[in-house]
Amino acid sequence: MTITITAFERSPDGGKGLARDTRVRWALEEVRQPYEVRLVSFRAMKEPAHLALHPFGQIPTYEEGDLALFETGAIVFHIAQRHAGLLPDDANARARAITWMFAAVNTVEQPILERETARLLEGDKPWNKERMPLVEDRVRSRLNQLSARLGDADWLDGAFSAGDLMMVSVLLRLKSSGILDEYPNLAAYLTRGETRPAYKRAFAAQLAVNKPSTG
Fold first, then answer.
1. pLDDT tens, 159-189?
2. Which residues in the chain belong to E strands, given as ranges?
3. Is the pTM of this model over 0.70?
4. Are strands 67-70 and 36-40 parallel, antiparallel or unpaired?
5. How many CB atoms lie within 10 A of CB 129?
6. How far apart are CA 199 and CA 28, in angstroms?
């Protein structure tokens, strides 16, 4: 059965790989599964056909036969369970990899998204100048903990897994901030993720959609 995912017709980040379809593309590339992409506009995302797939009117969605999924964590988890390559065979190691998937989106991503909201949507508020240091302190608190846990290892728990895929995807949101420069082992961890061939293929595919036309 053909796998179809949805992605922005034109991503707000201009193709930097921050839109969440990149995570799903990366997972599919890691397990060598072909897929098709249906591009949707912001208007179409709020229309009944898309809302039937994603009740919150976002991307990406995942369709395979009569299965339709939303939420990148759930989609990547499904891909990792269905195809070899993203979860260890050992039951305990598998459980730990899944734990890191949840940690990425529930624990580490939340203060990073709060920072993005404060920077992009609240930058003109009179209280923003005082709030930003507090928001960034919360980001650094999580990065301190993550950095200590990673240490000098290449990946979070042995070999690369879906947990690393999700964590690297989350840390990508800080790439241009300069904050990761304070954590050399996390910066190197991010680079290892970005240089994986599967990530490069996923990034190139989403970038191709977002390149400005030259005609």
1. 999 999 999 999 999 998 899 999 999 999 9
2. 3-8, 36-40, 61-64, 67-70
3. yes
4. unpaired
5. 9
6. 10
Angle, vertex CA 158, rays to CA 18 and CA 192, nearest 5: 35
For residue 145 the two structure tokens come to 């903990």
Is residue 76 within 8 Å of residue 43, measured between CB atoms? no
Q: What domains can be seen in the chain, in order of their start residue?
A: 3-85+198-210 (3.40.30.10), 91-196 (1.20.1050.10)
Handedness of CA 27, 11, 40, 71 (dihedral sign): positive
Alpha-carbon gap, residue 156 to 13, rounded angstroms: 28
Residues 6+ apart with CB under 8 A from 211: 15
The pLDDT of residue 212 is: 67
What does the alpha-carbon distance between residue 210 and residue 167 come to, in Å, rounded to a whole number?
Answer: 24
The β-bridge partners of 64 are 3, 67
- The pLDDT value given to residue 10: 87
DSSP letter for 184, please. H
Structure tokens, 72:
């990148």
Question: What single string gives the DSSP state of each residue in 119-154?
Answer: HHTSTTSTTHHHHHHHHHHHHHHHHHHHHHHHTT-S
Could you read off the pLDDT of 87-98 as tens digits, one per residue? 999 999 999 999
SS (H, E, C) 15-41: CCCCCCHHHHHHHHHHCCCCCEEEEEC
